[in-house]
User: Which sequence fits this backbone?
């Protein structure tokens, strides 16, 4: 979305304030919906929870491609909710299935996030020009979510269902009484705020400084790709 913001703003359909809310909504959803992931995993299993989140993600991406403010916000809400669940369950699944190489695979997972973000930033403007529509450019990413859903449904583990009677509420309350938990939340919240400010507004700032939309998109992609170094080096460190 970020590289397309100057184009959406130029069309006059959404104000700058509305666009700022649009960039804030998915980040807010990541925090609000992540706590539902353990509950979902207990109810239908971690594997099916991931599949359901991919279905919601696909629906949100498709809905966001309709050029109306309501569908744009509704789709973004679904996208943020789905990624909040996916981002919580997937690392847990990696640690469960790949115990001996969880650190390496977490690095690969982070690297994949960086590559995906970089491709999204770099290709959004070329897609918008090829399709002659910023909304269709947004909708086109639905295909990636659907491919991931089909691939996951094909290869996902099939563990025996476990009916756990224990609730995560008590554990969550105990965790929130730990000073370290609050310190980690403060650290992650601070660094995430910086990251998402850059992700949301760097292309707009670059366009206003005289760069073309293409250049702004690919410069944002380059800024995301620099994270590959740390993603690969983190397990070794």
Assistant:
């Amino acid at each position: 979305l970020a590289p397309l913001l100057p184009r959406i703003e130029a069309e006059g359909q959404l104000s700058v304030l509305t666009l700022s809310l649009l960039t804030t909504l998915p980040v807010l959803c990541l925090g609000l919906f992540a706590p539902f992931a353990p509950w979902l995993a207990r109810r239908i299993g971690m594997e099916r929870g991931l599949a359901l989140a991919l279905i919601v993600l696909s629906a949100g991406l498709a809905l966001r491609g309709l050029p109306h403010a309501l569908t744009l916000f509704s789709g973004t809400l679904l996208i943020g909710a789905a990624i909040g669940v996916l981002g919580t369950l997937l690392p847990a699944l990696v640690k469960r299935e790949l115990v001996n190489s969880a650190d390496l695979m977490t690095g690969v997972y982070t690297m994949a996030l960086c590559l995906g973000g970089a491709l999204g930033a770099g290709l959004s403007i070329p897609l918008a020009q090829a399709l002659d529509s910023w909304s269709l450019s947004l909708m086109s990413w639905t295909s990636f979510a659907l491919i991931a859903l089909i691939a996951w449904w094909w290869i996902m583990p099939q563990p025996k269902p476990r009916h756990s009677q224990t609730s995560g509420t008590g554990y969550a309350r105990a965790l929130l009484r730990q000073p370290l938990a609050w310190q980690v939340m403060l650290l992650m919240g601070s660094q995430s705020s910086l990251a998402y400010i850059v992700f949301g507004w760097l292309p707009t700032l670059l366009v206003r400084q005289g760069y073309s939309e293409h250049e702004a998109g690919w410069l944002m992609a380059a800024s995301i790709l620099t994270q590959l170094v740390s993603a690969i080096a983190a397990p070794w460190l």
